[in-house]
Structures are given as structure tokens and as C-alpha cells.
Structure to design on (290 residues):
């Protein structure tokens, strides 16, 4: 009894201290630990609780803390994530996020890595996915693009599970990885569920003539993918001013076409190409769907 209470308090504290601000959580749900026959998670939305059921057995303290955090993190975004996607994939994504944020807790990170090794032994196909996730996160696209897209699609589709979602989310991960690595390809995914265009501003010029190619590219992409749902404008450092200018121009172009886009902007400090503190900018333009 006392062990469960102490574990619940420790996990709640770590989640509040290490994830609440970075995930923009207004309120951290109460985390309750229970013992059961297998590891699983339950969300009690009415009571604003996350119930983590851990398998009974001889596990050391940090192993229990690590597994509880890995199971809890996706619930902080949306409880639909574990229902709608491959659960092993969700565990891999969650484990990566957890160990990246908990570098001040080496014992917990060690336990997370041990758990991750267990998952990857059973699902070797996810090793390449994890490698791509690490690269994506090095430019802060993991939490600013991938997770928001996964969350939105899961909430839109819930509770209708479709294996095609797992195929398309891997395609989106590959797209973001190719963008980070500078692969010459169209930065767009036009699938049944994920319909995303990425526009990176890599030059500081903010005059319309220099931004015109970006606008033409977005218009061309809309013709190629009329069901496009989201456009991301991304920039870092001195290129942010130009990205904001592009946002205004692109928004005006979209409104001139009779569209009413929803605009969400974030300017923040994050990782970028190995630098832990770089000023970054993300603009998410959501287009109305028929």
C-alpha cells in the first residue's frame, strides 16, 4: 500500500517538474499506481486521473518509475493515442521523450533504456523508427510537428481504429527525417489521414520577392493535394522574421481564395542541429475541411 502511494507521488512529481511546462499542460492529472497482471494504463477523465497498472513482480524502484512514466506520457497528450496507434510504437515514442527530458535522473533513464531494449527485441522493425525520431527531435520537430499531428488525427478518428494509420504515421516520420537530413523531395504527405505540408524558411530575407517561391510552392501543393489539412512554417534564429512575414502573405493568399485558415504560432527555445538552446519558430496553419 505504502509502496504504491510513494510511487504515485514520485511519478506525479517527475511529470509535473519535467513535462508540464514543455508540454504546455494547464493541469497535470493525478497519477495513481496500481498492481495488476500486466502493464497498462487507464484514463479517468471525469476525475482527471491517470491510472497506471504495473505488473506484479520483483522489479526495482527505478524500473517501476520508468515504466509508469512511459505509460503516462501519451495520456498527457490524448488518451486516444494508445487506442488508435500501434502500442509498441507509442511506447517507443514515449520512451524517447521521457529519457530526453530526464537527463537529471540517470537511474530512471537507465531503466527506460532497459525497457526500450525489451520492446525493440520484440519489435526490431521499430529500431529504424527510433533512429529517425532521434534525428527529428534534434530539430524540435518531434514535439512541434509529429506529436500534434498524431494527436489531432487520433482524436478525429477515435474510436475507429485503422491499420492504415500505422502505415501513414511511419510515412510522416520518414518525411520529417528526410527534411531534417536535407533529402531532395517534396515535403508533403497527402494520405488518407495525414495531409501535411512543411515549409522551411532558410533565408533571412523578408521581402515579398524572396518569399514568393514559398507562396507559389504552397499554392502548387494545394492543387496537388486539395484535401491538404495542415501547413507548417518552420524557421530558426535569424530566419524567424522572414517566416513571420511569409505567414502573413500566405494567410492573405488563402483568404483571397475563400479559405478561413486557423493560425497557431509558437516562438520558443529548443534544440536545433545539436545546439540545445536556439530560438525557433513554428506556425501551424490548419485549413478548413469539406
Amino acid at each position: 500500500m505504502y509502496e504504491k502511494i510513494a510511487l504515485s507521488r514520485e511519478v506525479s512529481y517527475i511529470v509535473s517538474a519535467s513535462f508540464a511546462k514543455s508540454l504546455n499542460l494547464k493541469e497535470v492529472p493525478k497519477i495513481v499506481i496500481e498492481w495488476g497482471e500486466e502493464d497498462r494504463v487507464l484514463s479517468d477523465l471525469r476525475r482527471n486521473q491517470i491510472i497506471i497498472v504495473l505488473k506484479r513482480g520483483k522489479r526495482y524502484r527505478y524500473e517501476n518509475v520508468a515504466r509508469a512514466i512511459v505509460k503516462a506520457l501519451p495520456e498527457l497528450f490524448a488518451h486516444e493515442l494508445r487506442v488508435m496507434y500501434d502500442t509498441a510504437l507509442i511506447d517507443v515514442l514515449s520512451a524517447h521523450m521521457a529519457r530526453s527530458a530526464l537527463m537529471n535522473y540517470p537511474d530512471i533513464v537507465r531503466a527506460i533504456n532497459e525497457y526500450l531494449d525489451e520492446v525493440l527485441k520484440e519489435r526490431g522493425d521499430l529500431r529504424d523508427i527510433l533512429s529517425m525520431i532521434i534525428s527529428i527531435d534534434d530539430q524540435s520537430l518531434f514535439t512541434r510537428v509529429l506529436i500534434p499531428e498524431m494527436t489531432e488525427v487520433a482524436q478525429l478518428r477515435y474510436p475507429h481504429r485503422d491499420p492504415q494509420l500505422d502505415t501513414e504515421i511511419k510515412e510522416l516520420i520518414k518525411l520529417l527525417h528526410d527534411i531534417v537530413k536535407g533529402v531532395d523531395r517534396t515535403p508533403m504527405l497527402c494520405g488518407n489521414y495525414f495531409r501535411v505540408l512543411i515549409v522551411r524558411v532558410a533565408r533571412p530575407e523578408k521581402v515579398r520577392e524572396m518569399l514568393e517561391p514559398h507562396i507559389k510552392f504552397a499554392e502548387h501543393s494545394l492543387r496537388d493535394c486539395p484535401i491538404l489539412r495542415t501547413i507548417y512554417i518552420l524557421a530558426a534564429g535569424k530566419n524567424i522574421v522572414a517566416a513571420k512575414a511569409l505567414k502573413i502573405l500566405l494567410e492573405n493568399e488563402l483568404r483571397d481564395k475563400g479559405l478561413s485558415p486557423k493560425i497557431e504560432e509558437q516562438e520558443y527555445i529548443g534544440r536545433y542541429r545539436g545546439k540545445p538552446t536556439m530560438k525557433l519558430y513554428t506556425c501551424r496553419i490548419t485549413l478548413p475541411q469539406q
The CA atoms of residues 86 and 166 lie 6 Å apart. Strands lie at 30-36, 40-44, 49-55, 188-190, 195-200, 230-236, 262-272, 275-286.
